[in-house]
Amino acid sequence: MNNQTLLCFDYGEKRIGTAVGQTVTATATPLEIIRVINNKPDWDRISQLINEWQPNRLVVGYPLQMDDGRQLMTDLAERFSRQLDGRYHLPVDIVDERLSSYEAKSRLKSDENIDAVAAQAILETWFEQQQGNAEELE
Fold first, then answer.
1. How far apart are CA 66 and CA 26, in angstroms?
2. At what angle do helices 43-53 and 72-88 cross, to 10 degrees?
3. pLDDT in tens for each of the 138 residues of the chain?
4. Which of 20, 32, 45, 100 could bridge across to 118 with cysteines, CB 3.0–4.6 Å?
5. How large is the greatest C-alpha to C-alpha distance in the chain, in angstroms?
6. What is the CATH number of the domain that holds 21?
7. DSSP 2
8. In which domain, by residue range, is 94 found?
9. Helix or strand or coil: residue 124?
10. How far apart are CA 98 and CA 91, in angstroms?
11. pLDDT tens across 35-70, in order?
12. Which sign does the torsion angle of CA 83, 86, 88, 89 carry?
């Protein structure tokens, strides 16, 4: 499989956690937390990250309720995904992010600064889902 770089976003109304990963080792690393002010992501900072990492694909966490039901954040994450696609013209995948914040809290043993680690957990989920579909990435 060709090596691909991915940027992952854990979208929230106030903060967006970010992580970067690559397909050869299927590993992800938390990056930073981007602020959302007046319902607008810091697009300048997102553009800087995209320019810095030159990703082949973007991944966005898809928040669903435990019973698979939608919530307000589901619509907001879908909107953010469409905005990423429209701005950067890169493939955007959405990944079920249920329990990613719980996983981040357990890794950090804290509720503070969990957003980037949650993005890391979401990207790791994406890698797990792709293991059987490696040919689709080429």
1. 26
2. 60
3. 478 999 999 999 999 999 999 999 999 999 999 999 998 999 999 999 999 999 999 999 998 766 767 777 788 899 999 999 999 999 999 998 765 555 655 666 556 677 888 899 999 999 988 876 655 545
4. 100
5. 41
6. 3.30.420.140
7. -
8. 5-137
9. helix
10. 22
11. 999 989 999 999 999 999 999 999 999 987 667 677
12. positive
pTM: 0.83
Closest CA to 80 of 41, 137, 111, 131: 41
Burial 61-94 (b: 16+ CB within 10 A, else e): bbbbeeeeeeeebeebbbebbebbeeeeeeebeb
Question: Following DSSP, what letter does each residue of 61-107 receive, concatenated?
Answer: EE---TTS---HHHHHHHHHHHHHHHHH---EEEEE-TTHHHHHHHH
Based on the structure, what is the number of domains in the chain?
1
Is residue 114 within 8 A of residue 105, CB to CB? The reply is yes
What are the structure tokens assigned to 38, written together? Answer: 């007046």
